Amino acid sequence: MAIKPEKLLNKSLNKKVRIVLRNGMEYRGILRGFDEFMNLTLEGVRLLGPEGEGEDGQDIGSLMIKGYDTMLIIPERRAEFFILSRTILATMRTVELQRVSDSIKEMAVEACHDARGDLLEALKGALEDEDSPLGRDILEKLLENAEIAASERIPYCQDTGTAVVFVELGEEVAFDRPGLVEAINEGVRQGYQEGYLRKSMAADPLRRGNTGDNTPAAVHIEVVPGDRLKILFAAKGSGSENMSALRMLPPSAGWEGVKEFVLETVEKAGPNPCPPGVLGVGLGGNFETCAILAKKALYRGIGRRNPDPFYAGKELELLEAVNGLGIGPQGMGGRTTVLDIHIEARPCHIGSLPVAVNMDCHAHRFREVEL
Amino acid sequence: MKHLRTPLTDEAVAELRAGDRVAISGILYAARDATHRAMVEALEGGEELPVDLRGQVIYYMGPTPARPGRVLGAAGPTTASRMDPYTPRLLDEGLKGMIGKGRRGPEVVEAIAEHGAVYFAAIGGAGALLSGRIKKAEVAAYPDLGPEALLRLEVEEFPAVVAVDSKGGDVYSRIHR
User: Fold this and answer.
1) Which residues in chain A are contacts of B176 at CB distance < 8 A?
2) What is the CATH number that goes with domain B2-170?
3) pLDDT tens profile A241-273
């Protein structure tokens, strides 16, 4: 229901108000009158200066202020909220949510058509090292597939996946309007529609059906210091996701237990996750953070090691062991079972050793952008 | 490389061995989870199948939408084992071949050997490459299933590997076991 401005102003008549002008100058005084042009008369006025810098102000008696120059009229008893939000806003960087939607849309379309450079290099490297004739044939066809996808604008794979989005949100970032998660889903909706990608989200796990636009995305928002906003996108296929696993090991199992679990998971998966792909291994945390760590590990570039030399060494050890299983491209035998393994670790309970293995296929559609 | 034409004959299938590379030409029927459920439910309800499966090959695939001017979008195989619960019943109807990716369960391998059928593996994830081998696509039945409708495809030199042969030989069981 509409409330007329004069009705609100009437409520403030003969009460203390704060006036903010378009040029930033602020005044405080008793509102004595106003007219149809919002021209104001005030008594007992104190000039607070630009952005209220001298909060005690300077006594300037009575004043008439032109409606045209006025930006805000705030009851003084509400002024503290205004002052607080002004202080916060001054330190925040504002990002338009439209940019979030646009970048998600672009990343979705690009990820599903253009294989990342590090992936192509890894596939070429694997082809050089692969001895199995069938394995070599498959690797050659995968490189050909990547070329056709990019040049003819056909998705690399028909399973264009669940959209997985990590947001690293700086504490000093503000959005121009509410609705971050909806902006992410809007980007997914547009990307999957306009990019001719498959809508692969069942509306309900048991009753199935289809949401029709590939939403909702799996969204993980992490608040980080500073004013940067990083958005990570992945189109994650179900073939590899279905072969992923988590186990709560006892701390006594140690590295050997972790290694055994990873090998067991890869062996059990065999051809299903469309090897050769990438493994994300989460270590530590608890039941849910461990799984998220494993997913996030997949975003790291192929060939890039964990910055902690201890885990960098474990990654290489695991890589050799996994490729020693002989599963090979498409599970048909060979040296190339995975292109890389990324471990991410974090502190955990003294009684726990959680380990999660998130498998990814050779399409490996991961992207990131800073806004 | 062995060149095959569908519908498959018993003689052609009998010659195939797990690990053989093949190029398939002719008609394939594309069907995924919901399509299989619909077909098996029809049979259990005493109805006829919408297509005669004798000698035919089913391709486990659900494509991306086609851009204007294209036959289909990306069209690679999906995981075959999800179709395992329905497969023996369709083999009873004369289905001769299947194309998918990944291992089949022991009951399915047994049923394939019993019926002298064959399971081929296409390259999982090579959706753009395989799309180029599909020359025609039309809805054959179950249009209400949307992306899971039963499609009739015409393919040329569609590349695959014999994963389970008519004697029960399994390419995956030979790996490092």
Assistant:
1) 325-327, 333
2) 3.20.130.10
3) 999 999 999 999 999 999 999 999 999 999 999
